[in-house]
């Protein structure tokens, strides 16, 4: 590349950097905190209502993730969860509803490719690694715990 071309390229890169919009970190952090907090508060309200209406606490704690995953999947299917995610950013990723969204969104997107190669194959595109590493990590932690207990360290 000639010196003239390098100079033009550098000028273009400088102009690109100046024109690039600056992310609003504080706003994004606050929105993520608020939206994530609202999702978790809704989960707590559901748990409280289950207990209030006579569901034993242990059973209510088992039902809550099922209900939250269902709500996340339902809202994704209706196109509402994406709007919430556009507003709240990372605040929608962390709660369990984000996992449901990660499962349902690719399945919906690829349904035109058929049930097996579209829905079934793409459903685990994002969630698959989460499941693999989550299960793998839990097995390793369980083995370490078992060995520590076996040899009297715990």
What would you say this structure looks like, in words?
This protein is mainly alpha-helical and 154 residues long. 81% of the residues lie in helices and 0% in strands. It is extended, with a radius of gyration of 23 Å. Helix 5 runs antiparallel to helix 6 (115-122). It has 7 helices and no strands. The model has no long low-confidence stretch (mean pLDDT 87). It has 2 domains: 24-122, no CATH class; 127-154.
Give me the secondary-structure topology.
Blueprint lengths: L2 H17 L5 H28 L4 H21 L2 H9 L7 H14 L5 H8 L1 H27 L4
Short overview:
The chain has 154 residues and is mostly helical.
Count of structural domains: 2
The gyration radius over C-alpha positions equals 23 Å
Low-confidence stretches: none
Helix content: over 70%
Count of extended strands? 0
């Amino acid at each position: 590349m000639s010196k003239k071309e390098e100079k033009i390229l550098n000028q273009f890169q400088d102009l690109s950097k100046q024109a690039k919009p600056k992310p609003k970190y504080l706003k994004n952090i606050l929105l993520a905190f608020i939206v994530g907090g609202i999702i978790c508060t809704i989960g707590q309200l559901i748990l409280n209502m289950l207990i209030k209406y006579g569901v034993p606490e242990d059973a209510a704690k088992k039902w809550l993730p099922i209900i939250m995953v269902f709500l996340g999947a339902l809202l994704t299917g209706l196109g509402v969860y994406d709007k919430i995610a556009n507003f709240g950013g990372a605040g929608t990723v962390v709660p369990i509803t984000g996992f449901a969204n990660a499962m349902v969104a690719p399945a919906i997107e690829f349904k035109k490719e058929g049930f097996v190669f579209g829905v079934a194959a793409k459903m685990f595109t994002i969630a698959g690694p989460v499941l693999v590493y989550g299960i793998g990590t839990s097995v390793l932690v369980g083995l370490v715990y078992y060995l520590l207990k076996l040899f009297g360290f715990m």
